[in-house]
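Supplementary Text 2. Reproducibility record for the structural model of the 319-residue chain.

All settings were left at their defaults, and a single model was retained for analysis rather than an ensemble. We include the record here because the model underlies the residue-level annotations in Supplementary Table 4.
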Amino acid sequence: MNKLQAMEVFVQVVDVGGFTRAADNLHLPKATVSTLIQGLEKTLAVKLLHRTTRHVSVTADGAAYYERCVRILADVRDAEESLSRTRLSPSGRLRVDAPTGLAGDILIPALPDFFARYPDIQLELGCSDRPVDLVEEGVDCAVRGGALIDSSLIARRVGIIHFVTCASPAYLARYGRPAHPTELTRHRCVNYFSARTGKVFDWDFTRDGERHQLQLPGDIAVNDSTAYLSAGLAGLGVVQMTNFLMEPMIADGRLELLLPDWASDPLPIHVVYPQNRHLSAKVRVFVEWVAELFSNHPGMRLPKVAQPVRAGTTFEVAL
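Retained model, structure tokens:
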């Protein structure tokens, strides 16, 4: 039995709470995962896991062994990186998750530069506006927008995103142009709802100390940035979305800017990863690359003076 592989498998089973998910994340047959765990328990002469048909939980001995395994595996990776070219040229599979709009318009167009720097990394980029469980789904790190509420994650703030309010020419020709945020209560709006809670998010507007936070009427609400943008282009209502997605469409006339004197609360962007995971070289270079990417973007770099951030919109706004 490969003891280090068995330790890695055991840690993954504990992290995700099951053999099937661990096997999927490690790209191993479920039978191999089960055999390695059984081999560990036989070698150690202790029961590490409680198993039922629906759930796997760690025993007291298993919990103590888990903590030591995490430290040992981190030390092994440190030793390997310090004695190999990995620190200079990271390699291997890297699983990243990012919001749909941010991935499509910001990250993916810049990836040729990333692969030119790190040709030995194989990137698996999940693109979704739903909040993912990094540990359960085997994701190394994620780019996320919103206030941080998950204390189990380590986060690095890398940028900020601003929002604009728009509508299609067809919509404005039919319903007119609002001159003040409160006039939107008489309009049709495309709303965005939480994939986690189902709650429809409020709209916010600020100008010269005057602030309005509104629940606005609409015939449709979505929870995906691509669908949200499509609804606005189709004339289904007024939309409030990230400026980097809207600006090209404002420039070519597909959308028109509304309420330009009013600002919406900006949204902080973080790269997050589980705190009980060793920060491998490939994760480290990806985090640094994303931070550099945002710092070179004039509309998304972090301000020198702190700005207010949206509260309660963690990871689920249209990006």
